[in-house]
Amino acid sequence: MKISLACDHGGYHLKEEVKKHLEALGHEVIDCGTNSLDSCDYPDYAHKAAELVSNNKVERGIVVCTSGEGVCICANKHHNVRCGLLYNEEVAELTRRHNNVNMVALGAKYISKEEALKYIDLFLNTPFDGGRHENRVNKIQID
């Protein structure tokens, strides 16, 4: 699977761990930065990763910042992007089953590396349930 990945300085270490994990699983990772701990603006990188998802250049996207909130908000500004903030296993599974998310956000300060990798595996491997949820997902996009 082709996956976009982005972070700000607060998510840099976790992004690097996620990248290693994804590549070890055989995924192609498009790293949209940042590539250091230097202070930066999260929208600059989250928008790059979300644009790849929006334009179908990648199948999924993952964004990371300190809380996960800022990058999640940025990603959801893009057409056809549905980004969910992951903070436990049940949410990681339900965002796929019920919301058919194609991007996820992680808060590096609030989850461990082990938790993040578990949530990402659920994001990548859980199918969309469709059915009654498909009608709801179709109502999300308004433009």
pLDDT averaged residue by residue = 97
Helix content: 40-55%
Distance between the termini: 28 Å
Total helical elements: 6
- Overall shape: it is globular
Verbal overview:
Helix 4 (89-97) runs parallel beside helix 5 (113-125). The protein has a 5-stranded parallel β-sheet, sandwiched between helices. The relative contact order is 0.18. It is an alpha/beta fold. The chain has helices at residues 12-24, 42-54, 69-75, 89-97, 113-125, 132-138; strands spanning 2-7, 28-31, 60-65, 83-86, 103-107. The protein starts with a strand and ends in a 5-residue tail after the last helix. It is globular, with a radius of gyration of 14 Å.
Supply database-style keywords.
17% strand, alpha/beta, 143 residues
Summary?
The chain is an alpha/beta fold.
SSE blueprint:
Layout: E1 2-7, H1 12-24, E2 28-31, H2 42-54, E3 60-65, H3 69-75, E4 83-86, H4 89-97, E5 103-107, H5 113-125, H6 132-138
Parallel strand pairs: 1-2, 1-3, 3-5, 4-5
Helix pairs in contact: 1-5, 2-3, 4-5
